[in-house]
Amino acid sequence: LKAREQVLKKESSFVRSTLSPVMERAAHYIAVLVFAFGLNAIMLLIAQENVGEAYRTFFYGAFGDLWNFSRTLRWATPLIFTGLSVSVAFRAGIFNVGAEGQVYIGAFAATWVAITLTSLPKVVIVPLAFLAGGLAGALWASIAGWMKVRYGANEVVITLMMNYIATLFTEYLVRYPFYTPGTAGESVSTVAIAPQAELITMIPGTHVTTGLIYGLIAAYAVYYWNKKTVSGYELKILGTNPRFAQFGGIDVPRRQMQVMALSGALAGLAGAVEILGVQRRFITRFAVGLGFDGVTVALLAQNNPLGVPFGALFMGAIKSGGLALEMFSNVPRAMVTALVGIIILTVTIQGGLRLFRRRGR
Amino acid sequence: VAVLEGLLMATLRTMTPILLAGLGGVISEQAGIFNIALEGLMLFGAFFAVVGSHLAADAWLGVLTGMLASGILAAIFAVVVLRLKADVIISALGINLLASGLTTYVMKMWFGVVGSFTSERVQGLPQVVLPVIGKIPFIGPILSGHTPLVYISLILVGVIGFCLYRTTIGMNLRAVGENPEAAETAGISVLTYKTTALILTGILCGLAGAHLSLGYVTMFTEDMTAGRGFVAYTAVVFGKADPGLVLVASLLFGVAEALTFRVQRLGVPPSLVLMLPYVLTIYALLFRIRLGRRGKTEKLRLEVEGHKL
Q: How far apart are CA A73 and CA A68, in angstroms?
């Protein structure tokens, strides 16, 4: 039996070595994307749409010119943060699918700073709003973390429930304590934030702000933390082999709490960057999908913080293209939701390619 | 008394989708599959029930279409998770997203509407007036006058309970969930059992969705399941995947949802009231864990912690 196992191992390593791991991973993603877009094309064909025309609109809307591309960057900005949030948790083996709710809570805290402390100068109010957003997101996520650590509750269920609670809670805050009659959209949004709290626009006339740079800095910071610090390394062990981590003397509950807080903080920053950079006031339900798109970003980046900006760029392009589709053609944005659904559904398939290759031989 | 009567009647209505999807979740859970795709499967069923009803101008054909559609989606999920070994949580999120996108997409492309879909051709389910029980005061108005799906869901609790604990197939299914290697050695095809369990889950979720869209309203609105699938999954955890206990949990969550309509009328901000079922769900989950810890600590913790770690 052991001999057979060794033969099998040799065979599988042989198969693996026909392509380098990086190439193989790339090939896997390309296969997933081709599959998803192919299925989408079939969906369009069934609906008797012009596939070529639809995809042309889609890609032009994502990359076509500076104006369209800046919309891609605009969406990539918060997605870098939510992507980092999800990947930090996933890497430690914690399925935080509550980024959606943490974004709302963080966004509201940032808004609160930016509409109440209006007399502060720019250099103070912007960092303060970011700090508030990150802190609020961290606290919100820590509730779920505490439930996991203290009671052993499954974090997937808890964080999903917390998403609904966060959405409804911020809606309540906007409609009651922060209700200001006589402003535009008074029932669904707060007043506008102080002008000096707005982020600086990098490409005039668009929503590409310095938030994008902050996102890249955050990605590098998380990378540095993963690679160069003890806690970052311990979390990796926790993610790959929790039992070993425990025997190895790692304080598992404490690390799990830390990781939830960090993950929540990053999601909260995504909320802050949306408010200060784009929305400029808190609008109820403004961030639908940002958290779940963060899951996709993390999956595409394989939880590698340096890969996250690229994943975010990809998802930003998909969002931007989807918006263009809705504006300039008959096809609704929901097509893009379905497309992302197919990608998430299939991206974790184990060695799909290897399966084909073995059959081919 | 009239208030209580109305509340309990509404509870029976609001608990049904949670119970049906929860029963589906029970089957998956017993087969050892962590299934949070209930949400998407339910949404799919709700939409295609309306589509079927619209095309055939018949409520029952609509229900059948919904069940079929959810069953097919569940089969796809089964292939991806069981045959292609994708991550079960991630893929479930994919299924939920796919269901949400696809229903909205089809609604726009086929029927040209956005937000919600209904037509004069869409038939709702009839309401059954129970012959004898219906005449008893207090109990009668509560139990009588619901759609058949309400009664079917209650019957299914017994049927599924019987199948799980008293038939060979049910025993085999539980064996597959508890110890797949041993089951495989004993000559039970794990793959077949798991696949069938997932498809059955899909069909039950389709039924749950049909109740949402054809039970008391006759329309589909975007993302109308609003987290009920996740609540149903919590009911499964809360009920330790036992049909009877899941019924109790669904009743609890049903009351919470029925209460939201009442409390809203008292002038409490609607956003706060709508939070209630979700808060209660979390609280119930923690309460359940604490309760279990007092007794057989380790075993239950492993169960609740689920299939990760």
A: 9
Q: Which residue has the tokens 């949402």?
A: B212
Question: Is the Cβ pair A157, B89 closer than 8 Å?
Answer: no
For residue B110, the chain A residues in CB contact (below 8 A) are 47
Closest CA to B61 of B73, B46, B72, B50: B50
Secondary structure of B45-106 in the HEC alphabet? Answer: HHHHHHHHHHHHCCHHHHHHHHHHHHHHHHHHHHHHHHHCCCCHHHHHHHHHHHHHHHHHHH
CB contact under 8 A, B286 and A348: no
CA A118 to each of CA A88, A191, A275, B211: distance values in angstroms, whole numbers, following the listed order: 34, 12, 15, 51
Partner residue opposite B286 with nearest CB, options A153, A176, A346 = A153
The size of the A-B interface in CB pairs under 8 A is: 161
Residue-wise DSSP of A260-316? HHHHHHHHHHHHHHHIIIIISS-BTTTTTTHHHHHHHHHHHTTT-TTTHHHHHHHHH
**3-class secondary structure, A201:** strand
Q: pTM of this prediction?
A: 0.85
pLDDT tens digits along A241-295: 777 887 877 888 888 999 999 999 999 999 999 999 888 888 888 877 888 889 9
Q: What is the pLDDT of residues B68-82, one digit of tens each?
A: 999 999 999 998 888
Residue of A nearest to B290 (CA): A151
How many CA atoms does the CB half-sphere of A75 hold within 13 Å?
A: 30
Structure-block tokens of residue B279? 């808060």
Distance from CA of B8 to the nearest CA of A (A): 25
Q: How far apart are CA A98 and CA A161, in angstroms?
A: 8
